[in-house]
Amino acid sequence: MLARTYSVALAGLEGYLVESQVHIVSGLPALTVVGLPDASVKEARERVRSGLINSGFEFPKKRITVNLAPADIKKEGSAFDLAIGLGILAAAGSLDKERLAKYISFAELSLDGTCRALNGALLAAESAKKHGFEGMIVSTGNAREAAIIKGIDIIAIDSLAEAAAFLNSKIDISPTLDCRDGDEGQRPVYEVDFIDVKGQSHAKRALEIAAAGGHNCLMVGSPGAGKSMLAKRLPTILPDLSRNEAIEVTKIHSVAGLTMDRASLVLTRPFRSPHHTISYSGLAGGGANPRPGEITLSHNGVLFLDELPEFARNVIELLRQPLESGEITITRAASSAKFPCRFMLVAAMNPCPCGFIKDPIRPCICSGSDIHRYQRKISGPLLDRFDIKIEVPRLKTQELFLKDGVEGSGQIKDRVCAARLRQHERFKTLGADLLNSTIAARDLRKYLFIKPDASKFLEQLTEKYSLSGRAFDRILRVSRTIADLGSSPYIQTSHLAEAVQYRNEFLLQLTY
Amino acid sequence: MEKSLQYALGLRVASGHNNRLFFQLVKTFGSIEEAWKAKTVPLEKACKVIEGFNAKKFIDARNNLDLEELSAGLEKSGIGILVVGTPQYPELLATIPDSPPVLFVRGKYLDKINNLCVGVVGARRATGYGRDVAEGIASELGKQNITVVSGLARGIDTASHKGALSTPGGTIAVLGCGLDVCYPPENRKLAHQIADEGVLISEYMPKTPPLAYNFPARNRIISGLCEAIVVVEANERSGALITAEFALEHGREVFAVPGSVRNALSKGPHKLLREGASLVETAQDILLELGILAEPVKEHVDLKSSLDKDEQAIFNLIEHEPIHIEDIIGGSGYSPAHVSGILTMLELKGYLQKDEGNFFLRA
User: Is the CB of A205 less than 8 angstroms away from the CB of B264?
Assistant: First the structure.
């Protein structure tokens, strides 16, 4: 007897349909799985056998063959357990085959017959909907996540027995609903706020501009100045994720296994801060079956590299391509996957190895060549990537006792959102979600809107500072964002003048 | 290369770069040429007279040396040599007790060596103030056709060389390594500029690395070449103070530029001042002391455009000590955006300059 069940496997950030064909014939009792299963899929045999028996079903003492189609793609993981279990029941005649064919089965089986949640439920649900299935049977742990996808019934079960009972219409399980349905205005909740930061008004202004235009930002300062503290609060002033963006982020987090305890959609902007010992594939993504790296985990959010010079050179340099294109392709021998990675890059570093060269209080203990070697670790092309570079000083002792900062994230965020709206309006004919920092140079010129006196001022600046082509470009972008924050359709002299203060081209050449 | 120079070169190498030995051999045999060509027996006899002389080592070294090849190689690299006792050798330098017998030189304007020279030296980890002052003094001295001498090190030395480039006086760099070794690496371009406009000098054979103990020795040459030494910023124990010591030994004038009492690098110059060095505020002080009639230096009056109210308010907060932008924002009460814009305008108008990072001070 032959039966078919359906499941979804993940490759990168896409799900593809896997049809489990179960065939039972007379013969020596055996259970064989074919279709390029890897070790954990082969182990499903044991889980399914015990799971079935402990659920109170009889395990057919016959020759059972399970084929996971398409047969030429390598199958991995424990996602097929439930499908195989249900398939065997169906092939043995204990399950309604027609009803079974309408559902995707997506859960791992335990030996006692209970079902466990998996990574990637959101992608599986999306895939299920795409292929026209009526519903998806998942473990309760995955139900709320899967329910984010509308237009498909999410059936939450705890055990194989329950799934079988449902499919045989013995029990009724109503589809899980997205709990956010009634409350679309739900806003993200952050634990930190800019009001926590005392002083540092220059740095806060710089971050406001960075947030508004999506500009990458480099902070240089002595240890304890507050660079990490400031960086962590950047997501609080970024606009809320749109629904599509939120789904993208949730999918990525789902595949990475970060959504397990979460109710549903990720609403907060991702903030990833990998340690500087991270490897190339940790940052870029990789593994035999490509998994998202830190750059993808920070998609639509912020990637914060603290202690930038301590990162391995090859690891830092890999950032250049993703920063340009917003996506990364991981190629392996058997497969390749494309991951999105559009993030805001924020980095922090000390000005010298001990960190205190510009500190007014503590003396620096580094030798000239120590400093030179340390600063050389950041290549010119990498420095070029940062539109905004600032120096963050340590607060003087008396400032530590000042009251908290004056403005909270809420107020700053309002201004940022207003500025973003202007960019959206301005660039809407060119494509989605373009910002002053990401728009192509050629297009930027067209949309500059700069008055003649400001233009003249720009010439003066170019001469005074011997601006290179890239430096010129950066000042224009930052000025355009400053103008947007000031609700000005035109770039004025004052905007250019302010933009100059975020240049600090020689921030890192402290010894010459 | 002339034969006489070649002999000096050979003698230098064969005597193991031991200056004392070089001179003693010349004294014993009468001249450089005769010392170089001395036969085995007289050399062995000389061992009794010259302490620590190993004739065999000398002879072996001499035999292993292909003078023609060596000198051709030097010429190809654009390196010449100066030998003590010849007219090309700097006069002042010849008067010091242990003047280097052989100097390696490279540069288009060797005659600068016999110009009036003043050394401007100081700390490697100099502050913006120190570098600025050094560059200014060097520039003013250079305009009066005084050659500025320094050591091509990071910090004050670099600023001094830069200030003197493109002036009539020009600049000389004395290195603590071979002329073909670029140290520090960031000064490669500067070294080329100096070769084009002045001279690079070294006591050391090409390929000699910048070993730490070379530098005090090199400092005596800086002092030896100059009529006066100016110390701009220095730690209490530093190379610059060693150079000043030599200057005193050599009977040269010592000048020191004072600094902020909060700056550790002022300790060196202040120590010298306590010990009697002359205080320098501008190059004029040096010129007067050396008795040079300076060309009247026109006061560089910048007809600066006037400042508006806001700019004036910000400008009043800025001193000659660097102040951080955060303090300016706090002190003025203006928004960070406004302050940033005004600071740029003030910089363009020439009222202030920016130190690395977000520090500002009067121009």
Answer: no
